[in-house]
Design brief:
Helix content of chain A is about 35%, strand content about 20%. In chain A, strands 2, 3, 4, 5 and 8 form a 5-stranded mixed β-sheet that branches. Chain A has a 5-stranded antiparallel β-sheet with strand order 10-9-19-18-17, sandwiched between helices. In chain A, strands 1-6-7 form a 3-stranded antiparallel β-sheet. In chain A, helix 4 runs antiparallel to helix 6, helix 10 packs antiparallel against helix 21 and helix 13 packs parallel to helix 15. Chain B is mainly alpha-helical and about 100 residues long. In chain B, about 80% of the residues lie in helices and about 0% in strands. Chain B starts with a helix and ends with a helix.
Chain lengths: ~625, ~100
């Protein structure tokens, strides 16, 4: 310190000596006057404070950059990154040849954010017009929620451009998938439909919802100020589209069947009708049509009656169509032969105080003729020889009282009471189809035992894939035991119920039903030999049977010589004079057989001429 | 030393500008790609739509109606059908035997 003062003194001394010669330069840096005594603590304090400041800044930077970095990255990303949803399209439903039965296309759905809207009243009016609603309706909708309202979902056609052309602020659109059903009402009950959220509600759409619906994906992108996507960020989660479902349905067979039953229902002023066509070789359902039907794409004013898939969900007493099954059991157990004579005279039979009767007395009939003429008394006499348990087991074996293994929503089991509770008269009425119930599909399924030489084959609504390798095809055998021709389907095997001999004998009886003297000559289909069984029943109403309401049906096999298809037809409440299965349902069977066998490429097994005369023969009056 | 620094500074500036340009180009190309992908997607949708339209126009009911009304065609009954086997399939059947 003393050295510093000496220096100061020296400097102060100098100007005094030289001062008069020139203006002395003031040296601020070295001026002792300006030099202040800085206390050491203050220097240290300042250094410390500044150092602390830096430390805080470094700490904050570390906090932002290292510790809390995720939050800021996220905040940043949310300001320029956009997540884009990648919608998955619903799988298609195809028929067996790959024709579309249902498919999805994206269509815009328009929404509005009413609080962002700046539209003038005239613009709102124009918007309402483009949307196809009244201005008042639109205003009401806009008032319901200021943040978001759907204006109209799944808009199609010219309206889309009309709405877009208005270029209103606060109105936007998103793409949603719309389901389209090209086959319309013909296949409505099989295919079903989806709701506005694209979820299956009925039919195949519901049954295979998991398979059909896809999994949406997403990707992240960076958008610039113009809203253009300029960069992709991170990995893309691709959308998995729903899988296609290929049905066993043949669209043409389906349409024909639908058309025939629709015409028949109209002609007979009936309430409803159904047709089921099964491939007797593969167990595939080729067609399943119901009337009344609906258009799946437009479901306004839809009633339950239209929606019902009657062939699967309606059960009824199968009536005379049970007779061949009872006869088959009697043949199988050796109780009768086709030529065994049963006396049905006098057309009445009293059991435990109840009387069953035929429509008219037939006298002595062979077992074949009992089926051909549909005699209740004859069938009852066969049933009386049987144990209830035998009959119950046979009914169960052909699928009555069992839920069809179709995987289709709403398929019912029907009713078959346990044999222990059967009374004798009940066992008898069941032999001709009263006291138990089944759906049309179950009936058709049961008849596959006759078509397939005694085997009950499993049914499917999905196309069966012929998975045999190419070289193995040569050893395939067709149903008649001969090597299968190219394109001939691979037979599916099931559970044996009757022996092949019994099945053949019953097939002959079924054929006789369609010949002169049978109940259904109108079932004949030119060129093809057919066989089947009519059914006519009083409808159950409340506790009893309605006197003037009937149900008519026909279940048959064609061609009977080498069965390929099983067709079941049901007409509910025909009320135009005729009501017998042989008059109402059999002609539908005939037409469906004709068209289906043509479509399948099955060659006619008969001369055409012999048929024409036969179908003019009046039908035997059926007992029911 | 000062010259080298100047040179390096220049290089840095040029490389910076180059980066700006290339990232701009990349974004432009990405926009193009995006547009092309959207177009491809739209075309796929269009195809699906046309397929459905085609199918809806070709349903059996419509074809039958048009054939009957506009072309005055009628269904072939089995009475007027004469079935012939094609020589090709006949020889194939012969070969198989």
């Amino acid at each position: 310190m003393s050295r510093l003062l000496d220096a100061l003194r020296r400097r102060l001394g100098r100007p005094r000596k030289q001062g008069k010669a020139a203006m002395p330069a003031v040296r601020y840096a070295t001026s002792p006057l300006l030099a202040s005594r800085t206390p050491t603590w203050r220097v240290k304090f300042m250094i410390g404070a500044i150092g602390l400041g830096f430390a805080v800044l470094i700490g904050r930077a570390a906090y932002i950059q290292i510790i809390h970095t995720d939050f800021y990255l996220q905040q940043g990303a949310s300001r320029y990154e956009r997540r884009i949803e990648l919608p998955a399209s619903r799988g298609r439903i195809l028929d067996r040849h790959g024709d579309l039965l249902a498919s999805s296309v994206p269509v815009p759905s328009f929404w509005a954010a009413p609080k962002d809207m700046t539209a003038s009243p005239t613009e709102v009016q124009a918007l309402a017009q483009a949307l196809g609603m009244t201005t008042a309706e639109l205003n009401r909708r806009l008032a319901s929620n200021p943040n978001f309202v759907w204006l109209k979902r799944k808009v199609e056609g010219d309206a889309v451009q009309a709405i877009r052309d208005l270029k209103l602020k606060g109105v936007g659109s998103v793409d949603e998938y719309k389901r389209i059903y090209p086959e319309g009402e013909a296949a409505a009950h099989i295919v079903g439909f989806t709701n506005i959220e694209d979820e299956g509600q009925e039919g195949i759409e519901l049954a295979y919802q998991d398979l059909l619906s896809g999994q949406g994906g997403s990707r992240h992108v960076i958008k610039d100020r113009l809203g253009r996507t300029v960069e992709a960020v991170g990995a893309v989660v691709p959308a998995t589209d729903g899988q296609n479902v290929r049905l066993s349905i043949d669209a043409k067979v389906q349409f024909n069947a639908f058309q025939r039953i629709r015409d028949a229902v109209a002609a007979h002023k009936a309430k409803a009708g159904s047709v089921v066509v099964l491939d007797a070789v593969t167990g595939e359902v080729l067609a399943l049509a119901n009337v009344p039907s609906y258009t799946p794409g437009d479901r306004h004013n839809l009633t339950g009656a239209q929606l019902r898939n009657r062939a699967l969900t309606d059960t009824f007493e199968p009536g005379s169509t049970m007779k061949p099954l009872v006869a088959a059991l009697a043949l199988e157990t050796g109780r009768v032969k086709p030529s065994t004579v049963i006396s049905t005279y006098p057309g009445r039979l009293t059991i435990d105080g109840s009387t069953i009767s035929d429509s008219h007395a037939h006298g002595d009939l062979t077992v074949e003729e009992v089926i051909q003429k549909s005699s209740n008394v004859g069938t009852a006499k066969m049933a009386l020889q049987m144990q209830p348990r035998e009959m119950w087991e046979m009914f169960t074996a052909v699928g009555l009282g069992q839920r069809p293994q179709l995987g289709f929503p709403g398929a019912v089991t029907g009713r078959l009471r346990p044999y222990k509770s059967w009374r004798r008269i009940e066992q008898v009425t069941m032999s001709y189809g009263y006291g138990l119930s089944a759906s049309l599909l179950q009936l058709a399924h049961a008849y596959t035992v006759f078509a397939r030489d005694g085997e009950l084959i499993p049914l499917t609504l999905l196309k069966r894939e012929d998975t045999l390798p190419a070289g193995v095809q040569a050893v395939r055998t067709s149903t008649n035991g001969l090597p299968a021709a190219d394109g001939e389907p691979l037979p599916v095997h099931g559970v044996r119920v009757f022996s092949p001999g019994t099945a053949r004998e019953v097939r002959h009886m079924l054929n006789m039903v369609t010949l002169p003297g049978g109940t259904a000559p109108k079932a004949q289909s030119p060129g093809y030999s057919v066989g089947g069984k009519t059914g006519t029943a009083h409808k159950q109403e409340g506790k009893g049977y309605a006197g003037n309401k009937y149900r008519a049906w026909f279940v048959g096999i064609a061609p009977i010589s080498n069965p390929r298809i099983v067709v079941a037809v049901m007409v509910d409440e025909p009320s135009n004079g005729v009501y017998f299965g042989g008059d109402v349902a059999a002609p539908v069977f005939s037409q469906v057989v004709q068209q289906t066998l043509n479509r399948l490429g099955v060659l006619p097994d008969q001369e055409v001429k012999s048929q024409i005369t036969a179908s003019n023969v009046p039908a035997e009056v059926e007992s029911f | 030393m000062a010259r080298l620094n100047l040179l390096l500074g220049l290089v840095v500036i040029i490389s910076g500008l180059w980066l700006v340009k290339s990232s701009h180009d990349a974004r432009q190309l990405f926009v193009e790609l995006e547009r092309a992908q959207t177009e491809s997607h739209n075309l796929q949708i269009e195809e699906e739509r046309l397929q459905i339209d085609k199918r809806a126009q070709a349903t059996l009911g419509r074809v039958e109606e048009l054939a009957k009304q506009r072309l005055q065609m009628r269904g072939h009954g089995p009475e007027i059908t004469h079935l012939v086997s094609s020589s090709a399939s006949a020889s194939a059947a012969g070969g198989a035997r």
